[in-house]
Amino acid sequence: MASGTARYLRYILFAFFGLAVIYFISSSSTQIPGSGTTKWPGTPMPQKPGSSAAPAAPATAGESTVTSGTTPNIPEGLPPAAHDGPRMNATFVSLARNSDIWEIARSIRQIEDRFNKKFKYDWVFLNDKPFDSTFKKVTTSLVSGTTHYGEISKEHWSFPEWIDQDKARKVREDMAQRKIIYGDSVSYRHMCRFESGFFFQHPLMKQFEWYWRVEPSIELFCDINYDTFKYMADNKKKYSFVLSLYEYVETIPTLWDSTKKFMKAHPEHIAEGNSMGFLSDDGGESYNHCHMWSNFEIGNLDWLRGQAYTDYFNTLDQDGGFFYERWGDAPVHSIAAGLLLKKEEIHFFNDIAYYHVPFTHCPTGEKTRLDLKCHCNPKDNFDWKGYSCTSRFFEINGLDKPEGYENQQD
Ligand SMILES: Nc1nc2c(ncn2[C@@H]2O[C@H](COP(=O)(O)OP(=O)(O)OP(=O)(O)O)[C@@H](O)[C@H]2O)c(=O)[nH]1
Ligand SMILES: [Mg+2]
C-alpha cells in the first residue's frame, strides 16, 4: 500500500513537471522573432575601448539576463551602432543605369554594413536617363541616409560641337578591330567624360563638399569605424585611393601631350611639392601610365570645382581625346591630383579593403585585418605586385611599406 502511494505521488510530480514545461515553452514561443513585439533577453555586448558604438541598453526590470540558446535577431529596443561626432557635408555618389540595380544594391549593402549604418550619409544617384521606380524603391530601402536621384543634362552627356564625328567614328571602328576594351563604345566615352568633368557640377552635388564614389558590384572587406570624410578634412587631404595600376597605353596615346600643353599654359596651377614622381620617370617628359583607380574615390568636390581643375579639364576636352582616343576618368583624375595637389594631399586608405573586378586591395598587416574583422584573403592583395603603382606612391612620399609586404609581391 505504501509503495502504491509513493508511485501515485511520483505520477503527480511528473504530471506537474510536464505541465510546467509545456507552459514555459508555449509562453516563450507565441511571439515570432522579428514580428516587432518580441522582447529578447537583454545581453549587453562588451564594448571595445574607444569604440564609437553606443552602449547596449541594460536589461529592463523583470527581463531575464540569461543568454538565449539560439542566436536572436538584434534585440528590439537596443539603439543601433551610431557615431556621435559632427557629420561632414558629404555624400556617396553613384552613376548608374536602371539595369545596374542589383549590382549597385550589392555595393550599397556592403557600404552600409561596414560603414554607413553608423554615419547615415546621403547618397546621390545620377543617370543619363530617368531612374525607374524599382531602382528608387530598392536603393531607398538600402541607404540609411537620404537618397537623391538626378538626371544628367544633355550638355554633360553628348558630343561637344567641336568634335569631328567622322574622325570619332573611325577611331571606334579601329579600336573595335584591335579589340580594345570598350574601344567601340560611345556611351562608355560619355561616361568617362562625365566622370572626368561634370559629376561634381550636377545640381544635386552642389550642396556637398565631400564625395565617395561607388560603382556597381564592388566589395568592402573590413569594418570602417571612423568617419573617412572627417579624416580627409582633419588631415588636409583632397583625394584618395585604394588601388593603383598602369593604364592601357592604347587608350591614352596623346593624354600626356595635352597635359604638357596645360602645364605650359597654366604654370600657376602646378603645385609645389606635387606627385610628378608618381606619374613620370623622367621629370615630366613622358607619362609612365600610373594612375589611381577611380571606381573608388573619396575626395573634395570644391577642389574639382576650382579653377585649376576646371582649366585642366577644359584643355583636355578641347583636345577631344575623350572621343578621338578613349581617355578614362581614372588617369585624368590621377594626373590632376598628381600635379595640382601637394603630395601630402593625396591619401592611400590601407584600411579600406576593396574589390572591383579584377583587383583586390586587402590591408597589409595581420593586426589591421583582425582588428577590422576583414574577410579578404591577403594573398589577393594587389598593392605590392608588379602591375601596381602603390610602391611608387610609398617611395615618393617617403612612407615605410607595411610589415609583411615582401610576402605579397607575387
Ligand atoms: N547611367 C549610365 N551609367 C553608366 C553608363 N555606362 C557606365 N555607367 C556607370 O559608370 C560607372 C563605370 O562604368 P563601368 O561599366 O563599371 O566601367 P568600368 O568600371 O570601367 O568597367 P567594368 O570593369 O565593366 O566595371 C558605373 O557606375 C556604371 O554604372 C551609361 O551608359 N549610363
Ligand atoms: Mg566598374
Automatic annotation (TrEMBL):
The chain crosses the membrane at residues 7-25. Keywords: Glycosyltransferase, Membrane, Transferase, Transmembrane, Transmembrane helix. Residues 49-65 have a biased composition (Low complexity). Coiled coil: none annotated. InterPro entries: Glyco_trans_15 (IPR002685), Nucleotide-diphossugar_trans (IPR029044). GO terms for cellular component: Golgi apparatus; membrane. GO terms for biological process: cell wall mannoprotein biosynthetic process; protein N-linked glycosylation; protein O-linked glycosylation. It comes from the Eukaryota. Residues 34-85 are annotated as: Disordered. The keyword Glycosyltransferase applies. GO terms for molecular function: alpha-1,2-mannosyltransferase activity. Belongs to the glycosyltransferase 15 family. This is Alpha-1,2 mannosyltransferase KTR1. The lineage of its organism: Eukaryota, Fungi, Dikarya, Ascomycota, Pezizomycotina.
